[in-house]
Task: structure prediction
Amino acid sequence: MPHEIGRSFYLFEIAKYYQADKSKIPDYPHFLLHRGDDIVALTLRRAHTQFISADFAQTWLTSGGQLAKWCDRLVALKGTKNTLPLYFKPADEEAYIFYGQFKVYDVKDSPNDIKLAITCGAPKALASIVFLERVRVSRSLP
Result:
């Protein structure tokens, strides 16, 4: 059964639903779930998500270590038609809320953009700012 927008799920439920690989900390990419080399879902948390609404999200990606390859793979989706289910975990909550299908529509990674984001509270190891947009599914009447 597909996940409904607005419902909450624990991370293990989301991972099971998408048959995601089990990752070991510290190699765990905390902002997504993957199966093999494919990203299967975004699992954003308040600490790295500057903005989220029903239709848009902005998340901060840090670089370094094993996480770098996942950051690169997410950034590479800019301009493609690939969509990903987005789940968001508010501060002080255990469960993630399902927001729907999103696509990467912009990425900012210039030194000026990074510096400005850090002054606004982004982590000092910030590598990219990823902007996500909800994809609306149009249904045609029979």
About this structure: Residues 8-134 form a domain with the PUA domain-like fold (CATH 2.30.280). The chain is about 20% helix and 35% strand. The mean pLDDT is 86.
